[in-house]
């Protein structure tokens, strides 16, 4: 299944989702690797098998094995980090922010792709998971490395569109 097949499964009430899905492949402000890595990382983060399978198929011939692994790693590590750091950020007791997290994150240091690409994917997944602390950290790193506000916004738009596809499919069940 690809994005086109996924679009064909969108219920009538999700016409806007279908239209938005039509536009993401043509996005020109991101590299191919950034774009398809975003699709994979965000699709995995939805935890929806249909959406995940569609975007994995769409990206199959567009991402190297290393980039595919890195996109999967971004989704996985942010799944862990976003829970932990969202708790630290939201807890009234600020003592938790002074205690070492003791979470293994070696993959972040050597994801096998350009740091900017991995950071974009991590930012989008962090937005999906609602971790403000992680959003700020990834956005700050991206901006320090010359990524534009438009490129950051596009990555979040991808996350929103892909999440809405998963919600539409689940709502139609």
From TrEMBL:
GO terms for biological process: cell redox homeostasis; response to oxidative stress. Pfam families: CMD (PF02627). It is an enzyme of class 1 (oxidoreductase). GO terms for molecular function: disulfide oxidoreductase activity; hydroperoxide reductase activity; peroxiredoxin activity. Its EC number is 1.11.1.28. The keyword Oxidoreductase applies. It comes from the Bacteria. It catalyses: N(6)-[(R)-dihydrolipoyl]-L-lysyl-[lipoyl-carrier protein] + a hydroperoxide = N(6)-[(R)-lipoyl]-L-lysyl-[lipoyl-carrier protein] + an alcohol + H2O. The active site is at 131 (proton donor), 134 (cysteine sulfenic acid (-soh) intermediate). Keywords: Antioxidant, Disulfide bond, Oxidoreductase, Peroxidase, Redox-active center. Disulfide bonds join 131-134. Residues 100-171 form the Carboxymuconolactone decarboxylase-like domain. Belongs to the AhpD family. Antioxidant protein with alkyl hydroperoxidase activity. Required for the reduction of the AhpC active site cysteine residues and for the regeneration of the AhpC enzyme activity. This is Alkyl hydroperoxide reductase AhpD. It comes from Cohaesibacter gelatinilyticus. The gene is ahpD.
């Amino acid at each position: 299944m690809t994005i086109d097949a996924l679009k064909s499964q969108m219920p009538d009430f999700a016409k806007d989702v279908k239209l938005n899905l039509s536009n993401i492949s043509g996005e020109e402000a991101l590299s191919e690797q950034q774009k398809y890595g975003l699709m994979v990382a965000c699709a995995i983060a939805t935890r929806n098998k249909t959406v995940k399978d569609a975007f994995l198929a769409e990206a199959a011939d567009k991402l190297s094995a290393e980039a595919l692994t890195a996109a999967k790693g971004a989704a996985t590590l942010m799944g862990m980090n976003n829970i932990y750091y969202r708790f630290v950020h939201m807890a009234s007791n600020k003592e938790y922010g002074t205690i070492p997290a003791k979470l293994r994150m070696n993959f972040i240091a050597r994801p096998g792709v350009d740091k900017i690409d991995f950071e974009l994917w991590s930012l989008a997944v962090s937005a999906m998971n609602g971790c403000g602390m992680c959003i700020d950290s990834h956005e700050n790193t991206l901006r320090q490395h010359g990524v534009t506000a438009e490129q950051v916004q596009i990555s979040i738009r991808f996350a929103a569109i892909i999440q809405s596809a998963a919600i539409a499919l689940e709502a139609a069940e």
